[in-house]
Amino acid sequence: MKKILSTLIGMAMAIGAMGSAFAGDMINGAGATFPYPLYSAWAFAYEKETGIKLNYQSIGSGGGVRQVASRTVDFGASDDALKPEDIEKDKLLQWPQVIGGEVLAINIPGIKSEEMILDGETVGKIYLGVIKKWNDPAIKALNPNLNLSDQDITVVHRSDGSGTTAVFTHYLDEASPEWKSKVGSGKSVNWPVGIGAKGNEGVANYVKRLKNSIGYVEFVYAKQNHLAYTLLKNPAGNIVKPSLESFAEAGASGDYNPSKHFYTWITNTKGANAWPITAATNILVAKEKVDGNKRVVKFFDWTFSSASDAKAKELVYAPLSEALKKKVREYWKANGLY
Amino acid sequence: MTRERVRKIQSLVALSMSTLAAVFGLFWLVFILGDVLAHGMKALNLSLFTMDPAPPGVDGGGLRNAFVGQMMITVFATILGVPIGVLGGTFLAEYGRGTRLAMVISILSDIMVSVPSIVVGIFVYAILVRPFGHFNGWAGAVALSIIMIPVVLRTTEDMLSLVPWTLREAAFALGAPYYKVIIQVVYRGAATGILTGILLSIARVSGETAPLLFTSFNNSFFSTNMNEPISSLTVTIFQYAMGPYDDWHAQAWAASFMMTVFILILTITGRAVLKWRYRR
Amino acid sequence: MPRLSKRNPIDIAFSSITAIASISVILFIAGIFYVLITRSSLSIQRFGIIKFLISTDWDPVRESFGAATAIFGTVVTTTLSLMIAIPVAIGIAIFVTEVAPNFLKGPIGMAIELLAAIPSIIYGMWGLFTISPIMGNYIEPALQNSIGKLPLVGMLFQGTPMGIDLLTASIILSIMIIPFTASISRDSFNLTPAVVKESAYALGATKWEVVKDVVIPYSKLGVFGGIILSLGRALGETMAVAFVLGNNHRITTSLFDAAATITVTLANEFTEADTDIYLSSLFNLALVLFILSFITLAAAKLILLKSEKRHSR
């Protein structure tokens, strides 16, 4: 009995110790659910190529910022770019990685994807609870040919600290003055109505299950889960589809200034066919962890290749322009990470 | 209708209601287990155990890392928790029997058995994750062991107390020191009970999710490194069930099935052994 | 009792080791209190203890936090689940002790304990995938169309029935806590001396009257202790509720609304609180929960101890 016990304990410790020996092979990141399918796909390919495991946990941008500021992960990911003063305060570094767009996913029996048209003010009113039913005159006005029912709208939003929320509420702030005064924007807001779900995954899950619901998700989540989504009217007055082109057009107008750590917003941009709810999702690292950061940068530099770009495009994320990639590389160099 | 008849009918009605209550309770048990069985068997296949997770949206992949991770965390939690629990229970039933201290500790242990496990997770995050700079499997194991210790401690105390005092007296009469009495006489007598208590405590912590959320975190890759975040079955089920992908849902059901089977076997075995061993 | 000579050095060593092991429990409790209090200090300083408890704000943007919404959700789900679970649990205990034939007593008792052994995450999953659609598509609309039309009570059943709300969460929770009250009640009922029951039968009492007038009054304390224990367990339940509650911080009158409990708030927001005040407020919430559960569980334990003492006289 004693012998069995000690052998078991010995084996367990040996496995644990063996595991520790591979410590150099793992990079831990956490943050935005916005780019999660893409980072995961990239990490999968990276591991096959180099054997290094990039463990990315999608806990929301708020979590990404908190964990990297607490130095409990190697890098954080956030769609809600940190302001330069916050970056300096927490001694971090930040750069954009890829550009993606958010769509309003809907689950209305009989309405297919890309059939419904909405605009910022209407979406704001829905999320304020002012518009309660699908056949509200405001929605009817934008969709004269659609057969809208008298059903209540079930609003789905995020329950966690989310960059996706920050981008969405920023869009609403700009498009709907009523929203701005009553709620405001941020990673986590005081939602007037609706049910909260964890992560883009959670919102997609709830929209998928609940009839007559609406929720904001990153485009790939709507695509992968076959959720219907709406078209949007952008500030230029045009009705746009979410696509690589409309995301890239919005992305092009960002003010990516390395001295401001690339802090910028690209919602409601001026382009004729720009998608109004677009964001560049960012990577954050702790400034002082130079060795760790070099490994992180090595991975993200690897993702600036054309093969990785192709993967991104496959999931409908717009890769950064070559010029912007150059800027990011110079930023890395200037901070001793490249 | 005589008064007696009325009372008889009242009795019949009331007792039928209680039978209904029992049926109601059993109905839920069968419903839950049946559901887990039905959904779980559908998704059960070999790749669940041999492959690691695929990226979200990509079908396929398995939960090998989660099974291994859960096993490692549980094993280390047991290694940490069982000795402390057994030794602690020994103190309460032997050296400390009848003392105020033992009574207080016994009451506090009972409270800790039912304390919200998420608070334990938060506590361990503050002491074992923040200072070390990253989530790690050790923190998860410690969190589970904190939940385990009161359970093992109380069952050990109860089982040791069941050993008749006369047995100890006989050993003392032969000149044995107390520790020898405990180890060679009392432990032997209560062995089945203590081991069963350990089994039941393992069953209890194997299903815990909340304490692992902020300690061992999660890992999409296979890893046996306890110094880093490590995947666990419970946290993965949480993640997959809350996600939108049907593939994830299927895997979550299969994992739930395996976990439920494991825990139920442990629990049923444990309780059956206890009943048999301590039958009146 | 064991006032035995401990002059044997190994005895001294062993007794010290076991003592230290048992003191670990005190250390954990003290440690948890210490950590929670120190980490909540920022939030306590900013909001004050009372104000934090009654404030219905939970606004990370404006950095204003209060525990009232989370406490509301916790209280509602716990109360409702107890209301459903207690009658069922006592009914089960009566069945197992008085009604069931002897060969059934063991298996049914075991079956009820299995309900307790099922991990809460399984309850959560089953709740989300199986119960929630049934609630949202059938039961809740039915409730809304029947009781929902009545004046005062109808307020409880307003809003869009989605299946992700206080009602569903309470039902799942109630199933989880039935076993605790049931097994403790069963044990208490069994402690009623046969003599007392037999005297009642001898006087011509029906079985139900024996239960109602002899067994239950005799075991009142034990049953009550079991109920408080279930309450304590329900307070701390996270996973079973997290899937089907909807996570919306607000105080509402309808059971068909999403809400938030302390545990689910912690689970969802802890790793993601990005400002210091946010994290500190979460620690503050955890402290409130810990104190609440501690008091409840201590009360349960003391009641049960008293009941045991009474029986061993």
Structural overview:
The complex is a heterotrimer of chains A (338), B (280) and C (313). Chain A has helices at residues 2-21, 36-50, 61-69, 84-90, 120-128, 137-142, 163-175, 177-182, 199-209, 219-224, 244-252, 290-302, 306-314, 322-334; strands at 26-31, 53-58, 75-78, 92-107, 117-119, 154-158, 195-197, 213-218, 228-229, 231-233, 239-240, 278-286, 318-319. Chain A has 338 residues and is an alpha/beta fold. In chain A, the strands form 2 sheets. In chain A, strands 1, 2, 3, 4, 6, 7, 8, 9, 12 and 13 form a 10-stranded mixed sheet that branches. Chain A has a 3-stranded mixed sheet with strand order 5-10-11. In chain A, strand 10 and strand 11 (239-240) form a beta hairpin. In chain A, helix 5 (120-128) crosses helix 7. The radius of gyration of chain A is 22 Å and the shape is globular. The mean pLDDT of chain A is 87. By secondary structure, chain B is mostly helical. Chain B has a single domain, classed as MetI-like (MetI-like fold, Orthogonal Bundle), CATH 1.10.3720. Chain B contains 11 helices and no strands. Chain C has one domain (69-312): MetI-like fold (Orthogonal Bundle). Helices cover 74% and strands 1% of the residues of chain C. In chain C, helix 3 packs across helix 6 (166-190), helix 5 (120-146) crosses helix 6 and helix 10 runs antiparallel to helix 11. The longest helix of chain C is centred in the N-terminal third of the chain and has 39 residues, at 9-47. The mean pLDDT of chain C is 88. Chains in contact: A-B, A-C, B-C. Chains B and C meet through helix 1, helix 3, helix 4, helix 5 and helix 6 of B and helix 1, helix 3, helix 4, helix 5 and helix 6 of C.
